[in-house]
Amino acid sequence: MNTNLIFDQSAYEQATDASVIAVADNAIALDQTCFYPVGGGQPGDTGSIGFAQELLSVSNTYRDKQNLELVWHEIENPTKLPSVGDQICLKIDWNRRYLHMRMHTCLHLLCSLIDAPVTGCGISTDKGRLDFDLPEMTLDKTELSDQLNELIVANHEVQKLHITENIEQEIERLTRSKYVKPPIIGGAVSLVKIADIDLQPCGGTHVAGTAEIGEVVCSKIQKKSKHNRRITLQFAI
Ligand SMILES: [Zn+2]
């Protein structure tokens, strides 16, 4: 029992029809979804589900703990949930998701500028941050902002690729994060490639070209521990 992950092939799908394949106390799982499940620093999508005459609010989306290929949609105030086999339609809160996509893609650019392992990641609608294992304080906010905006305006293409062979070795070779490994879904791992700037395994959602990110500013560089530097970015407008 798996969910077809529409967002993995097409991050711009905002709505879809689906059928219910499992029902829990306050969540339903579907045969396909465009909703992104929380993971890799990117929050789970919110939005709405329509079925019969009801309109339900989805307050979070997450993967099943045992089966990473099954996606649950958490329903706010679940007074009347659909049943297994029911046809529903679902729609993402697109403004929120698109901000996540823009910031998530920008964090890949940030990654390309700093040669150090990533130890943490967080994304929200107005900011994003990466933690780096970086003992020396060699970074400058203005310089980073300028470098990022230069990459953004050049509108580099962002592509999603999939690898199906030597997965473990390829993950090991390409992953920048020290702690977070991308999910292996259907025997494949997603890679994100931004021109010749960045290539790494990532299961998140991204914009198609870097110009969509818009202008950003590096707002903070913090020393979180002896080895840890936290870099926070915000949208300029
Ligand atoms: Zn990503």
Report what the structure shows.
By secondary structure, the chain is an alpha+beta fold. The chain has two domains: 4-92, Elongation Factor Tu (Ef-tu), domain 3; 97-235, Threonyl-tRNA Synthetase, Chain A, domain 2 (2-Layer Sandwich), CATH 3.30.980. The protein has helices spanning 6-9, 94-113, 141-153, 167-174, and strands at residues 4-5, 15-23, 27-30, 32-33, 47-51, 54-63, 71-76, 87-92, 118-123, 127-133, 158-163, 189-194, 198-201, 216-223, 228-235. A six-stranded antiparallel barrel has the order 2-3-7-6-5-8. 35% of the residues are buried. The structure holds zinc ion. Residues 104, 108, 192, 202, 204, 206 line the site of zinc ion. Zinc ion binds at residues 104, 108, 192, 202, 204, 206.
What key phrases describe this protein's structure?
about 240 residues, alpha+beta, Elongation Factor Tu (Ef-tu), domain 3, Threonyl-tRNA Synthetase, Chain A, domain 2, 2 domains, 6-stranded antiparallel beta barrel, 4-stranded antiparallel beta sheet, 4 helices, 15 strands, about 40% strand, globular, binds zinc ion
Question: Quick recap of the structure?
Answer:
With 237 residues, the protein is of the alpha+beta class.
**What is the averaged pLDDT score?**
93
The CATH topology of the largest domain = Threonyl-tRNA Synthetase, Chain A, domain 2
Low-confidence stretches: none
Radius of gyration of CA atoms, rounded to a whole number: 19 Å
The CATH class name of the largest domain reads Alpha Beta
- Tell me the count of domains: 2
Largest sheet: 6 strands, antiparallel, barrel
The counted number of beta strands is 15
- The order of strands across the largest sheet is 2-3-7-6-5-8
Fraction of residues in β-strands: 35-45%
Count helical runs. Answer: 4
What ligands can be seen in this structure? zinc ion
Helix content: 10-25%
In terms of structural class, how would the helical and strand content be classed? alpha+beta
